Amino acid sequence: MQKFNRHTIQNNETLQSIASLYGIDADALKLFHNNRCEVKDMILIGLTGQKELFLPRTAVTDKNRLVKFGPGNTLPFHPENSFQKYATAITIDNGRQRSELKYETSVRWLKTENKLHFFEIDRTSALYLNEEEVNEIADLLAYKTSKVLYPLQISTDQKGKFNAVENLSVFKERWPAVKEEVYRIFDGETVDLYCEKIEAIINEPEAIGLYLKKDYFIRTLFFGIYQRFGEEYQTGITDTFPVVDNVMEPVFEIKLETDPLKDEYNLIPLKGEGILNDERSAYDFMSGTPFSLIIDDAPEMNHDGSIILHYFLNGTTTLAESIYLECGISLEDEKKITVEIAALTEPK
Question: Predicted confidence band at 30 (pLDDT cuts at 50, 70, 90)?
Answer without folding.
Answer: very high
